[in-house]
Amino acid sequence: MKYSLANVTAGLRAGMRAAWSAWNPAAGSRMPGERGDRIASDVALQRLMSKMWVDHERRAKVQLMRTMDQQDGRVKRIHSKLARDTTRGGLVLQINDGAGQTLKREWTALVGRLQLDQVQKLTSDARGLVMEGNLPLQLVFDDARNVIAGLRMPSDTIEPITDAGGRFKDPAKAYEQRDVMTGATLATWGAWEMVLCRLDPDNFDDLGCMGRPFLDACATKWRQLVMTEEDLVVRRRMRAPLRLAHVLEGADATELETYQKNHYANQSEIKTDFFLNRKGGVTAVQGDAKLSEIEDVAHLLDTFYAGSPAPKGLFGYASDLQRDILEDLKKDYYDEVDALQDAQASGYEVAFRMHLLHKGIDPDPGEFTLRFAQRRTETPNQVADLALKYMALGLPWEMIWADMGLDADYVRAKLAEQASRTDPYPLPGPATNPGQPTARVSVTPGNKPKGESATSISQPGSNGGRGRA
């Protein structure tokens, strides 16, 4: 039987489509037990019209977010802080099954090819997700079916091709890139060749529903705030200089014009006196020394930051903000960061799974977990303190390491390497000597929720953990 490159490629695509459909059956054709459509009728009609052309409404929204980021330092700082805190610590793959060396090897190679170990790559993807509301990653494959790149595409030109039920019409042609000027199709990708992370979609099960930029609901208030601040500057410039009111009682238009010309003609000279031959006077009109009536600006500023992920105190506006209130607002901000971490990590997890499916590996959903190492932007002291509390509760060591964002296999290998060397001061523990007693950890009373340690630790055979005291 004669094989051609086209036949081999078609066979690979058919096999990949079958594997992808088995992994995500809800994204393809209607399932046997599914009834009805997933989207509203008005949304379906609007989407039918938008599929014929570039979605200019979504493109205009993305363009506005980019303009806000470029022209306003407050918006740029919100996006930058969210991106930095989201990618803090980098990615870590946690294998739930101990025999996962194949997954470890494939993940390590994928991280190097996709540059997922580079802070700039992760931060760039996070900024795109926050600013545009979507993170489309194009997966590029080589001849050996390895994913060699994950390219971030402009989300305002990417269109998912779905039917009226919110499913892909053809998974082999799930996404298209449209030309802005002509509306022509520039490229087409299968559902397994494009990973789309969506931020707060109106309907997750509707595959044609795109995500929303983080600050899209603040765009109107941002315009009003910028306009009011510009008016404030204009008012300051117009009313700040000192002015003189020249009053000439009984002067006709000719005399007043002559006086005005003489005054302007000698305006460059320093004047100490004014001489008038009729009843009149020169009165100084003071400019505004301080424009204190800016409650409207303060209201717009508070309204704008109410829609941002973090309190305005974290961005320099710390006046009239109590510390306990700031702590509560920071907790809400950490929840937003956690949600962004989950959304972005899920995209990389799908990319890794697509790579494994191309290699003929189909792991169970619970066999591995991909997450960012540091959660809730905790400090290293808080992470260690929480781990010690888990130790006091008797949790398994590998669970504690995983919660700290560490690779359990890497830690176990390092402990074995340490145990194989001569150690003049051995520290007994379950990881190296399971039969030896562990350190005694207890929670101290009267703990303050300000990041201080809440644990008391003592090692067996020591002087109660008092060190050299």
General description of the model:
This protein has 469 residues and is of the alpha+beta class. The chain is 43% helix and 13% strand. The chain has a 3-stranded antiparallel sheet with strand order 3-2-7. The longest helix is centred in the C-terminal third of the chain and has 36 residues, at 323-358.
What labels describe this entry?
single chain, 469 residues, alpha+beta, 3 domains, three-stranded antiparallel sheet, 13 helices, 43% helix, elongated, disordered N terminus, disordered C terminus
| Spans of at least 5 consecutive residues with low confidence | 1-8, 430-437, 461-469
Secondary-structure element sequence?
Answer: HHHHEHHEEEEEEHEHEHHEHHHEE
Strand content: 5-15%
SS content category = alpha+beta
Number of domains: 3
Question: Level of helix content?
Answer: 40-55%
Report the oligomer.
single chain
Q: What is the alpha-carbon Rg in Å?
A: 33 Å
Which overall shape is indicated by the principal axes computed on the Cα atoms? elongated
The major sheet is characterized as: 3 strands, antiparallel
Mean of all residue-level pLDDT scores = 76
Q: Whole-Å distance between the termini? A: 83 Å
Our count of helices gives: 13
Number of strands: 12
Give the spatial strand order of the biggest sheet.
Answer: 3-2-7
Map the helices and strands:
Elements: H1 5-23, H2 41-50, H3 56-71, H4 73-86, E1 91-95, H5 101-114, H6 119-132, E2 134-141, E3 147-152, E4 158-160, E5 175-178, E6 185-189, E7 194-198, H7 219-239, E8 243-248, H8 253-265, E9 280-285, H9 295-306, H10 323-358, E10 368-372, H11 380-393, H12 397-403, H13 408-420, E11 440-443, E12 455-458
Antiparallel strand pairs: 1-10, 2-3, 2-7, 4-5, 5-6, 8-9, 11-12
